[in-house]
């Protein structure tokens, strides 16, 4: 299963990285501690989040759901969207077209 999208890939990565910043313990996905994450500048965090978003899109090509920190990110083929469900039940929808 591949993630099918029509949008510019860079744009898609940017839009997925935005809600990742709001996810509790998102840094655990890349093996960082809260202290390490806290020492990063906003620009450094943004770079890591974009890399995470790229990794998540790749992972969703092989599995329907991926855990990142305190959230579940899923690929909804029928809706042509990636859904970020946070632990606090807030969902972010990233459209793929």
Question: Helix and strand layout, with pairings?
Answer:
Elements: H1 9-22, H2 34-39, H3 42-60, E1 65-68, E2 71-76, E3 81-86, E4 91-95
Plain-language structure description:
By secondary structure, the protein is an alpha+beta fold. The protein contains three helices and four strands. The protein has helices at 9-22, 34-39, 42-60; strands at 65-68, 71-76, 81-86, 91-95. Strands 1-2-3-4 form a four-stranded antiparallel sheet, covered by helices on one side. Helix 1 (9-22) packs across helix 3 (42-60). It is globular and about 40 Å long. The protein starts with 8 loop residues before the first helix and ends with a strand. The model has no long low-confidence stretch (mean pLDDT 89).
**Which sheet architecture does the biggest sheet show?**
4 strands, antiparallel
Helix-strand string: HHHEEEE
| Radius of gyration over all CA atoms, rounded | 13 Å
Strand content: 15-25%
Number of extended strands? 4
Largest sheet strand order? 1-2-3-4
Query: Which descriptor suits the 3D outline?
Result: globular
Oligomeric grouping of the chains: single chain
* First-to-last CA distance: 17 Å
Number of helices: 3
Low-confidence stretches: none
Helix content: 40-55%
Mean pLDDT: 89
Structural class: alpha+beta
């Amino acid at each position: 299963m591949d993630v099918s999208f029509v949008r510019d890939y860079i744009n898609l990565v940017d839009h997925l990285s935005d809600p990742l910043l709001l996810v509790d313990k998102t840094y655990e996905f890349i093996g960082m501690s809260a202290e390490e994450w806290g020492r990063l500048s906003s620009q450094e965090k943004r770079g890591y989040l974009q890399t995470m978003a790229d990794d998540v899109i790749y992972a969703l090509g092989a599995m329907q759901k991926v855990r990142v920190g305190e959230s579940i990110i899923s690929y909804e083929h029928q809706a042509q969207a990636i859904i970020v469900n946070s632990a606090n039940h807030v969902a972010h929808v990233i459209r793929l077209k």
